[in-house]
Design goal:
- This protein has about 80 residues and is mainly α.
- It is built from two helices and no strands.
- The longest helix has about 30 residues.
Length: about 80
């Protein structure tokens, strides 16, 4: 009996790890497939939600200013 356990215990570790990896890969593929473009009715619903939350303003505003370039800090010299 000890010989059987000593031969097959690596499979008891490898098989569940392989199954978990396979399920993880399949789950990623499903989540990528669910990011398809929205249909027209879903798109208008999302736009309506964004407007109601105030993310999109109906008033005419000036275009956003570009971010200022970050100036590099001068390196401190070792003394």
């Amino acid at each position: 009996m000890k010989k059987i356990i000593s031969v097959y215990w690596p499979f008891a570790i490898v098989v569940p790890l392989a199954a978990a990896g396979y399920l993880h890969i399949c789950g990623d593929a499903v989540s990528r497939a669910s990011q398809a473009p929205l249909a027209a009715d879903q798109l208008t619903a999302e736009l309506a939600r964004a407007v109601s939350y105030g993310m999109v303003d109906s008033a005419a505003t000036l275009p956003a200013k570009p971010m200022r370039a970050v100036a590099a800090m001068p390196l401190a010299e070792a003394s």
